[in-house]
Amino acid sequence: MAVTRALLKVVEFSRLSQPAGGVRQELHHGELVEFLPVKKLHTKLQKRLVSLLEACLDPDQYGVDKEFPFRPASEYEVWVADVALFSLQLWEQTPDDDYFRGVPAIVIEVLSPSNSASEMLDREAICLGHGGQEFWLVDPQRESVKVIRAGGTSSVYDAAGVIKSLVGTIAVRDIFVR
Known about the structure:
alpha+beta; tt1808, chain A
């Protein structure tokens, strides 16, 4: 006998109660995924990235936030970016009772020991395959940033590097200031 499992839709996902203890829920390909709360360094890097991007962006065109939920596609996806730079035009088109519709222009993920390579490749494919322009992987252990662009090019920047992004330039050392 075959066991069939129904995929969870966004409307059903949005009705779920929030779990206790800071556990974050996302909807990946119709399946509920839970993540443990992030630690202090992760949060510090998120805040720093938000500040650095805010200093570069055109405030009439883009917004930036951390822990940013978005719906990249279909009725089976709700992802959360550690940091997102998003189009204000798309923001305004999203109803107040929904998640951001589309993919932020830049999605930034701060790597944690619990992240798998497969998970990050899936995030990259979802983001760049549905309209995202840049996908960043921030590695706190190596103090480096990998930037993958929609055209398929990628670059890895170490502490001496300068990221030339969609909205301006960011010195990698400024991300990891202690």
